[in-house]
Amino acid sequence: MRRSIRYEIFGSAVGILLAFAVTDAFAAAGAKPKMSGDVEITDHDSKVFRPGPTYENEKYDPEAQRQIYGGKRPIDTPRPLLEIGRSIYTEGPFRDGSTALGQKNIFDPSLAIYGEWRTAVAFNDNGAVEKGLVATRLDLDVDLKLTATERIHALFRPLDQGGKFTRYEFAGDDREQGDLVVDGNLQTLFFEGDIGSIVAGIKDEYVSFDLPISGGLMPLFFQNGVWFDDAFIGGAFAIPSLNSPMLDISNMDITFFGGVDKVTTPAITDDQGNLADHNLNIFGIALYAEANQGYWEGGFGRVDGTGDFDDNSYNSLTLAFSKRYRNWFSNSTRVVWTFGQEEGPRGGQQTADGFMLLSENSLITHLPSTLVPYFNAWVGLDRPQPLADDTGLLKNTGINFETDALTGFPRLDDTGHNTFGAALGVQYLFSLDQQIIVEVATAQIIGDANEIGRAARDDQYGFQIRYQRPFAKGWIVRADAMYGALKGLDDLAGVRLEFRRKF
């Protein structure tokens, strides 16, 4: 043992002497180490240095060192199912990549497969239909990273198709017992990258612009999913990082997008009443700007129908502003205007014409990260619609207006058509290790009762409570219970327990 220690000390001393010898040799020869052309060597000035602190009389306390960083400790996070090449979110040093795409755009391919598996048991009373069931859903993301800015991404959902999930119905009317739903189709498959980085690699010199692009069967998500949340065949590009001192804009991005297939909107359905995902084109522009001590979002888009849907085309215009006021109140105000549709599907009444004003509010409490009371409200005139989505404009207004995308959990009317209403609730996150939400909500009709689609026929009231927490590495359990009182219709009720495995 002592001999090993002596050898280590001797080896370290030799290494230090060799380092000094090499440095002196470079200095004597007048050679400079290899470095970037815009870097210069400065003369050494001992006056700018001072001795480091010494702790000879202090005992090392590892707990005190952790408290410097807020007592944070490493978290053993779940890893993807498969990782080939450089792993996701790991520390260096990293291997050298290839210069096949140029010195300025290093090619370092890696493949990762990750996602989540959801299974829930629920008893849902949707008024006309009651069912008790167990349903499961699997989301598989396949990510092929090529460079620091280019990748190819795909999403598979092999256990559901067309809104139906692999399930076993154990109670209720006309139950189907077991139903294995298998789908090998791609949900998304797209390329995204940056033209600036690609050009820099080809020319072997840095360029002064960034031009992010994407294309394929690709998802887009604007305004927290309220205005746009859909995957379609098309493309998009953005002009990022703009600013204007005159207009008080510190940062602004402009995105242009267009698509030719797989576009869905609640406003246009096929002969069976299902959302149409064919013969619809889409194009538009979305803008983000940090200005006026807040955050602006705006957009204009058009759903352009062809063939049987030629007269169902419509335009959508939106504007939103988010800001925190005096460190006690946060607000996002959104407006959506849908216009330009000649007639509804199959020659019926218009389904995309109207205006919505949506206000999302939360209080900043003495526990700003964990205790969040909120109050969201809206007014919807006629039939406003998202530009592209498979749900209504109110899906984020409150938990009473969202379903679970798995068991068909009941919800209040999420369209906002000819209604006004609100959701009042409180969210508590404890020590950021669990969540509970309690909410009451209502949708009040304006004028006569609606007769189109799934919009509210009359006033609705809802109460819901949700609780979820992780209980093991990669595992989350969630429980929901809701009750909805619908004037003039059967009431709604649902209870569910879900287990979610993330990987």
Keywords:
18-stranded antiparallel barrel, 2 domains, disordered N terminus, Porin, globular
Write a structural description.
This protein is mainly beta and 503 residues long. It folds into 2 domains: 2-52, no CATH class; 113-229 and 310-502, Beta Barrel (Porin). The chain is built from 3 helices and 22 strands. It has helices at residues 2-29, 62-67, 195-203, and strands at 82-84, 110-125, 130-145, 151-156, 160-161, 164-172, 178-179, 186-194, 212-222, 228-244, 249-261, 280-291, 294-305, 314-325, 329-339, 353-363, 371-383, 419-428, 435-445, 460-472, 475-486, 492-502. It has an 18-stranded antiparallel beta barrel. It is globular, with a radius of gyration of 29 Å.
Short account of what is shown:
The chain has 3 helices and 22 strands. It is mainly β and 503 residues long.
Intertermini distance = 45 Å
Number of strands: 22
Element order: H for helix, E for strand: HHEEEEEEEEHEEEEEEEEEEEEEE
What is the CATH-assigned architecture of the largest domain? Beta Barrel
Would you spell out the secondary-structure blueprint of this structure?
Blueprint: H1 2-29, H2 62-67, E1 82-84, E2 110-125, E3 130-145, E4 151-156, E5 160-161, E6 164-172, E7 178-179, E8 186-194, H3 195-203, E9 212-222, E10 228-244, E11 249-261, E12 280-291, E13 294-305, E14 314-325, E15 329-339, E16 353-363, E17 371-383, E18 419-428, E19 435-445, E20 460-472, E21 475-486, E22 492-502
Antiparallel strand pairs: 1-2, 2-3, 2-22, 3-4, 3-6, 4-8, 5-6, 6-7, 8-9, 9-10, 10-11, 11-12, 12-13, 13-14, 14-15, 15-16, 16-17, 17-18, 18-19, 19-20, 20-21, 21-22
